[in-house]
């Protein structure tokens, strides 16, 4: 230890660090010992182990028993539900649902300020539902009528178009080739022209 103290006294970087460590050690010696809170170890174990055991003082115990008498079966259900809500999986599921809804709203062009203006009275929702349903039915009946007209036009075109093997009446006959302009020799066709 003597060589270390000699070094700390002569070294410009170790000396201040050693003096700070000594001052901290002196402060720790000056602290008075404090009595730990009642049930500290029990409370730490209850919070860190995940087991929902609690220490209830006599006044709180009386209030709790009154609430249990009033609520009866609700307390165990709520405590089980609260344990589920506190799980990280539940929090991540809620976060993903929020992200999905916000992404869909963004893609659809819906703004939160628009949603706040929506009239959610049952009569308004019913009216909105029926008007939307009427627009959808009208759209599909119009599309059905359009497709029926289109199929009739196609059947008329097929009926008026000539079959593939028959020559068209509208086509003009091709002019016959002049033998003089033919590139074949006269003896080839067997006729003279």
Structure at a glance:
The protein is an all-alpha fold and about 190 residues long.
The description of the largest β-sheet is: none
SS-based class: mainly alpha
Strand content: under 5%
Order of helices and strands: HHHHHHHHH
Count of alpha and pi helical runs: 9
Distance, first to last CA: 134 Å
Helix content: 55-70%
Number of E strands: 0
Give the integer mean of the pLDDT values: 76
Description:
Helix 1 crosses helix 2 (14-30). With 193 residues, the chain is an all-alpha fold. Among the domains are: 8-72, no CATH class; 119-157. It has 9 helices and no strands.
List the helices and strands and how they pair.
Blueprint: H1 2-10, H2 14-30, H3 40-49, H4 58-71, H5 74-85, H6 88-108, H7 112-116, H8 122-160, H9 186-189
Helix pairs in contact: 1-2
Jot down its keywords:
193 residues, mainly alpha, 9 helices
């Amino acid at each position: 230890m003597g060589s270390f103290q000699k070094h700390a006294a002569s070294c410009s970087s170790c000396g201040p660090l050693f003096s700070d460590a000594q001052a901290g050690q002196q402060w720790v010696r000056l602290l008075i010992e404090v009595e730990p809170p009642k049930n500290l170890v029990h409370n730490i174990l209850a919070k860190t182990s995940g087991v929902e055991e609690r220490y209830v003082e006599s006044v709180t115990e009386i209030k709790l028993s009154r609430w249990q008498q009033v609520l009866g079966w609700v307390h165990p259900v709520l405590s089980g539900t609260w344990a589920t809500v506190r799980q990280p999986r539940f929090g991540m599921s809620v976060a993903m649902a929020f992200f999905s809804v916000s992404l869909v709203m963004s893609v659809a062009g819906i703004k939160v300020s628009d949603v706040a203006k929506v009239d959610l009275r049952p009569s308004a929702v019913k009216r909105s539902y029926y008007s939307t349903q009427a627009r959808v039915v009208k759209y599909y009946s119009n599309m059905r009528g359009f497709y029926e007209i289109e199929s009739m036009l196609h059947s008329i075109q097929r009926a008026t178009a000539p079959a593939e093997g028959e020559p068209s009446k509208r086509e003009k006959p091709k002019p016959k080739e002049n033998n003089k302009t033919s590139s074949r020799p006269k003896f080839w066709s067997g006729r003279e022209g």
